[in-house]
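Q: Given only this backbone (86 positions), what sequence would you predict?
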């Protein structure tokens, strides 16, 4: 099971063309900052994303996310290779 860093609907784009979420939906809001790579979506449909920006709105802080290509398993393999002893 995958734990997401920030819950959102990966099909929900706003006028920016990016997927968006509210910061208060983050498991740990301190992880969410522009440029950060985070897991977004939900347990059934998670994706690796990059935080594009954060915009203060009357309804709360909106986080814009760019969905990165590949699956979570692709990134898991990348990290395993990068951290394996030489």
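A: Predicted residues:
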């Amino acid at each position: 099971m995958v734990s997401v860093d920030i819950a959102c609907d990966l099909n929900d784009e706003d006028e920016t063309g990016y997927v968006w979420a509210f910061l208060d939906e983050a498991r740990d809001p301190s992880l969410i900052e522009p440029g950060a790579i985070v897991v977004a979506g939900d347990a059934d449909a998670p994706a690796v994303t990059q935080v594009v920006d954060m915009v203060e709105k009357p309804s709360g802080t909106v986080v814009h996310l760019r969905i990165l290509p590949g699956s979570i398993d692709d990134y898991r393999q990348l990290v395993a290779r990068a951290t394996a002893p030489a």
